[in-house]
Amino acid sequence: MHDPTDTYQDYFERRWGHLRRARVRALAWLLDAPDLLDVHDPHWDGRIATLGPVTPETECWLADLDADPSALDAALGDKMMTRLGLYAEKLMAFYFAQQGRLVAHGLQVRANRNDTVGEFDFLLDAGAGVEHIEFATKFYLLQGDSTAGFDTFVGPNLADSLGRKMRKVFDRQLELGSHPAAQELLPRPVVAARALVKGWLFYPRGTYRAMRGITAGHCRGFWCALEELEALPGDRFLVLPRLQWLPPFRAQSATWMLDKAQLAAELDDHFTVSDAPVLVSLVREEPGCIVEFERGFIVPDDWRERAAARLHP
């Protein structure tokens, strides 16, 4: 358990700062980051999975992997990945396989050749049966008050919400094991079906609102509009590529580091051609490395109005 006065970045650097390779750091984050959803809250009806604390054996395994990542590199393959969800899934598949628990990954269920019913993210060994794990790594911004419940957390591009995602997971994806088309594919009966959800939640800068059902110690950051950029602390920033959204940033160097004026200019250029919010890492320079101390989404100046219209059409 880490000090509650820490930021998550402080904790991660203290616990995993010895790891140097980005892929291994991402895997360590997936294994050790707090679950986004509170596994103990009755709202989820016992359908939230958790990995539990990282064991000393797994900690040593990660250190060994950092020293020799050849097995992980082989599992991820040479093909360039652009989808963060696929990257996170492949990291988790590697972990489950190394633990000897993986029965199947990405198993598609089809009613016929042209009708895909769904896909099992992971089937894990559960003795006489298998456990179905639906896995998600999500990034949501709190917009407005809590009257819309979990729909108040919206995706940066306003195409999704935490509430909508979890309704889809519970009502459709976790029911896949009972579909007739799945029966002939399953090696053993599904004895449990749960959702494993990791991610970051982002709050209007300077605010935080606890919500039932959300893990109290979850990874969190801020969001602000471009016009509020000047209020950000520090003067070293990185625009994070999507595949670097998982763990706090750390590297020996970063050629794309920006000061505040450069960041403002880059964001201004970006928002003239795109409405997509940008995830920015606030970093400090330490001897021999650059370390993230905070992160947040910078959104277009009209994002609040568009998000509110989506919540209350």
TrEMBL record:
Pfam families: DUF1853. This is DUF1853 family protein. The lineage of its organism: Bacteria, Pseudomonadati, Pseudomonadota, Betaproteobacteria, Burkholderiales.
